[in-house]
Amino acid sequence: MRYLLLIYTPEPTEAAPQDQMLDEVHEYDAFTQWTIERGLFKGGEALHPTSAATTVRVRDGRTITTDGPFAETKEALGGYYLIEAHDLDEAIEAAARIPGARRGSVEVRPIFELPTGDTAEAVAAAG
Q1: Residue 49: is its pLDDT beyond 80?
Q2: Domain that holds residue 27
Q3: What burial letters (b/e) apply to 29-63, b meaning 16+ CB within 10 Å?
Q4: CB 103 within 8 A of CB 12
Q5: Number of domains forming the structure of the chain
Q6: CA distance 42 to 30
Q7: Start-to-end Cα distance in the chain
Q8: To bridge 85 with a disulfide, which of 58, 90, 93, 124 should be the other Cys (CB 3.0-4.6 Å)?
Q9: What is the pLDDT of residues 55-69, one digit of tens each?
């Protein structure tokens, strides 16, 4: 089953020292390598801070954009990994190894597999 590991950490209020940032980059590289070696890795990316986000809503057919995130929070989504794990326990094991879990949290979310092709047509016909 595929899982999305959503990494939430406090957004920095000031730049961290270069050596500290470099240490964390190395930790993430090691974690990524671990997921690749275990055959879990399907994808992953770091995100820019929420200050770079744009929130989009459509109301009465009109597109409304707002600078920044939808809601104020103490922790922000900073990145994610998409993995293929045998079960939730294996996904949790992977999430616990993410460096950001030590100062924030990692949400483990199963991917809802949408039917495709013939399966989607069968589901629609049975509807």
Answers
A1: yes
A2: 2-126
A3: eebeeebeeeebbeebeeeeebeeeeeeeeeeeee
A4: no
A5: 1
A6: 16
A7: 25
A8: 90
A9: 888 999 999 998 876
Round to whole Å and give the CA distance between 82 and 45.
9
Query: Residue 20 is encoded by which pair of tokens?
Result: 């500290």
pLDDT given at position 50: 86
Supply 127's token pair: 């509807």
Do 3 and 91 form a contact (C-beta atoms < 8 A)?
A: yes
User: Could you tell me the two tokens for 60?
Assistant: 């009465």
Instruction: Kindly state the DSSP code that residue 12 receives in the 8-state scheme.
Output: P
Least confident of 29-33, 34-38, 68-72, 95-99: 68-72
Residue length, the chain? 127
Longest dimension (CA), the chain: 59
For residue 31, CA distances in Å to 21, 35, 61, 74 come to 15, 6, 44, 25
